[in-house]
Amino acid sequence: MKLKNFKLAMKVVHFIIKGLLFIVFSCLVLELALQGAHWIHAAMEPASELPHPGTPVILCVGDSHTYGVKLPAEQSYPGQLQSLFDHQGIVVNVVNAGVPGENTSELRRRLPELLVRYRPVAVVILSCSNNGWNRADIIWSDLQDGVLQPGIRSWPRRLWFGLVGNLRTVRLLTYLWNETGRRLKPLERVEDREGKVYFHREQWKWKGPWNELDRMLDRSRRDLAAMVEMAESARALPILMTYAGQPFSPMGGANDILRTMAKSLGVPLVDNDAAIWPRFMRPDGSMDQAAHDRLFLADSGETHLAGPGYAIVARNVFETLVQLRAVKP
Known about the structure:
Blueprint: H1 2-44, E1 57-62, H2 64-67, H3 77-87, E2 93-98, H4 104-118, E3 122-126, H5 138-144, H6 155-162, H7 168-179, E4 188-191, E5 197-200, H8 210-233, E6 237-241, H9 254-265, E7 269-270, H10 272-276, H11 289-295, H12 307-323
Parallel strand pairs: 1-2, 1-3, 3-6, 6-7
Antiparallel strand pairs: 4-5
């Protein structure tokens, strides 16, 4: 009987070991596939050529909301901003340097190279919405700011977030895990403590430790402050923007951080959120669903704008740049 139990136990152990090896092998294959897809996409991405070489450059940086996910390049807000300038006879180059899924730390790390390459007169920054799930380069950011000190005590955190957190498989699984927190409820009209009206859809909930949330919010502010300083050092006008469609969060969402940082740093703010939501409000305070659906992509969780929505963003940026005399009519 003991021999049979031993053999059965060994079979279970072998089965578990094989299962773990299969999971490790599958993750390795998936990681290689994701890395390969990333490099292939980067290699196939056409080199950005300035439409008007030798003239001022407006550099638009950020994530998928700048890139214009699921839309032709000309329908993104930088593409439509270029069309506005061309139509007004203002000769400038608008560069779309948006990268889908990017967080503020990644953007902060690549911004110096963009500033050297394009030498822009203005930098329009729209970044923060991916910080909740994308942990890439956060250790680099913390080390830059002296928040994380080198030493043995910091190695577990550095190993996880600096190495494992940068794996594309981990980033994909983290994104999918956070997506399970989405609660796509009907839009509700809510009012904050100051009496400001928002249309609120609970789409995402923080699932990590609360101290990590505090670190993430602090890092977001530090990254934005660093990017503003970089732009100013390069003699470019930094402009922060809010997201249109970003849900209101009582804990302080991306738009709250962007508004606060623009005020504290004394830089211009293009408040797309404040410009978009009133277009859906009827006199009785209810939402016009048809107006909403015209401006947002239905298959993007209703957080990404469609072409007509980005036209409003482009117009907001255009008017801000002209008003601040960043470009000459």
